[in-house]
Design goal:
Beta-lactamase, alpha+beta, 3-stranded antiparallel β-sheet, disordered N terminus, globular
Length: 560
């Protein structure tokens, strides 16, 4: 968003200095997408969003329930009541275990009785009623289950006693240190304390300058190492409930990576090619007919961003709860002058969303759910083409517009934007998510879980944000590159890593992924401002983790 206001130079310079010369793509996202019939949408699809898919996935009936096995039905002949396994699966229908010390005649009689009355008490005497090893005693399934539960409890008790004796006798040092923390636990606690202190320092230093009330952090590591989830501050400026580490955030232009991945998945399915032109998919825009999908995704299309339009910002401020269709969003860019080389444009990703909907005959939200959200079990990620439900917005802190340099948005200055529509920020920045799900997504994205090899290479193919020309990787000499919805930077401090900052009218979310150590970092702050210092906070967090031996600095390509 800020990149299109004409005032981004000051902010980019500050970020560049913080990263030792790496001009980070602070790709703030004012965005949009279409789910209705307008602008390339499809009838009957409006209102379908990720929330519905997630709910349906959560309550999908288990295949272990009755009726989901072949040849099985409730009360069917040959199956015990409440037994999910049908005949022929290698399991006895009566769980009683019998030691057969009897004649062949007795066994035959047992089988006949079992077939007729599978759960009837049957007691067959040989010589006396007194229990002996020679008696054949059959109990009901219920009695058997009761006996087995008692046996399991006894085994657990014996195991617990044996383990306690083992720990006390053989490993007294561990037993004695149980009330305190182990060295590993103590180190983890110290790291968490240091990170919490950094978040508090940021909040105290920039509470007024950035008009923020909350800062949140999520860190995930490669393998099974537990993640770190922290938050400081309150949900509202000037007071309010304490912010939860699991709150939801508007992720802004981080949405663009999702849009790019869906386009590349469609290419892998041979439904389109990123070398296709807009003339093939969206002929209603003849002026841009020769632009390829790839140039849309890597920001070299020459198409201006609709967020460069002052009329657009006037309309957003005048109708904060209104609905902006994709065709309306594109219309703001039609009369703007074309751009050259690399130029960040939200219009590109509105057009990409329209192509996704046309190629699939489905809504953007539905495709996002089916292709990404449900397979990755991102249960705290949501998308809506209109307004978000109260159940979603109630989990978000207030988010404040704090940019005085845009007169058209003056009515919104200092006001909470979290309940306003994100229909102006659809496939370019309309997703809402927890930071934990964002870190999980980053790991899947950059480790190749979402795309085949060819499309993964296309995703990571870079152009220099300085020259607009293709580059193999960023270097200290050419430190910032843009791929297909993702951004790479190189600095002396951190080496080479994937870095993206998304921004809406009330939130900033920074995502970092360091390939060498497999560490994902997500940071959320609840305001939109030009006075942004989140890059410095991200570096400080990473350095704290590095000093604790939890991450490694990425390799740096020297360049010239």
């Amino acid at each position: 968003m800020l990149a299109e206001l004409g005032v981004v130079e000051q902010r980019t310079k500050a970020v560049y200095e913080v990263l030792d010369g790496a001009s980070v793509a602070t790709c703030s996202s004012s965005v949009a997408t279409a789910e209705g019939t307008a602008g390339g949408g499809h009838p009957g699809l409006a209102g379908r969003d990720v929330r519905t898919c997630v709910v349906n996935a959560r309550f999908r009936p288990s295949t272990r329930q009755r009726g989901h096995f072949p040849n099985e039905a409730a009360g069917s002949e040959g199956s015990l009541p409440h037994d999910p396994w049908p005949q022929g699966h290698g399991r006895q229908r009566d769980p009683a275990r019998v030691k057969l010390d009897a004649s062949t005649q007795h066994v035959s009689q047992l089988r006949r009785q079992d077939q007729q009355q599978p759960v009837t008490i049957t007691r067959l005497h040989r010589k006396s009623d007194r229990p002996t090893a020679g008696n054949i005693l059959f109990s009901t399934t219920k009695r058997w289950n009761q006996d087995m539960r008692k046996l399991r409890k006894l085994r657990k008790s014996l195991f617990g006693i044996a383990f306690a004796l083992l720990v006390t006798a053989v490993m007294p040092s561990i037993a004695e240190s149980a009330p305190g923390a182990t060295p590993a636990t103590g180190a983890a606690t110290a790291v968490r304390a240091s990170l919490r202190s950094e978040l508090n320092n940021y909040l105290n230093a920039y509470r007024v300058a950035e008009h923020i009330s909350a800062v949140s952090l999520a860190v995930t590591f490669r393998g099974r190492r537990p993640g770190i989830n922290l938050a400081v501050g309150s949900t509202r400026y000037g007071g309010g409930p304490t912010i939860s580490p699991y709150a939801l955030w508007q992720i802004g232009s981080n949405t663009k990576a999702f849009t790019s991945v869906m386009v590349l998945q469609l290419e892998a399915e041979h439904k389109l090619s990123i070398n296709d032109t807009l003339g093939k998919w969206l002929p209603q825009y003849p002026a841009w007919g020769g632009v390829t999908i790839k140039r849309l995704l890597n920001m070299t299309s020459g198409i201006p961003s609709y967020t460069d339009s002052l009329e657009f910002w006037h309309d957003v401020a005048a109708a904060p709860h209104g609905v902006f269709s994709v065709s309306r969003l594109v219309s703001y860019a039609l009369d703007l002058p074309p751009t050259h080389g690399y130029s960040y444009s939200n219009t590109n990703y509105i057009l990409a969303q329209m192509i996704i909907e046309r190629a699939t005959r489905d809504s953007y939200g539905s495709q996002l759910c089916r292709r990404i959200v449900v397979p990755l079990s991102l249960q705290n990620m949501f998308y809506s083409g209109t307004s978000y439900a109260r159940a979603i917005t109630a989990r978000m802190p207030a988010g404040y517009w704090f940019i005085a340099a845009l007169p058209e948005m003056t009515p919104q200055l200092g006001h909470d934007q979290s309940r306003h529509t994100l229909s102006w920020a659809r496939g370019a920045g309309g997703i809402v998510s927890s930071l934990q799900d964002m870190a999980k997504w980053d790991r899947a994205l950059f480790t190749g879980r979402e795309l085949p090899g060819k499309q993964q290479r296309e995703l990571m193919s870079l152009v220099s944000t300085t020259t607009g020309k293709p580059i193999r990787t960023t270097t200290l000499a050419d430190p910032a590159g843009y791929g297909l919805g993702i951004s790479q930077v190189t600095s002396k401090t951190l080496g080479t890593l994937w870095y993206y900052e998304g921004e809406t009218t009330g939130f900033r979310v920074v995502n970092i992924f360091v390939p060498r150590s497999g560490t994902a970092i997500a940071i959320g702050v609840n305001s939109a401002t030009l006075n942004d210092h989140t890059a410095a906070l991200a570096i400080s967090v990473y350095q704290t983790l590095h000093k604790a031996g939890l991450v490694a600095v990425g390799r740096t390509a020297a360049g010239s």
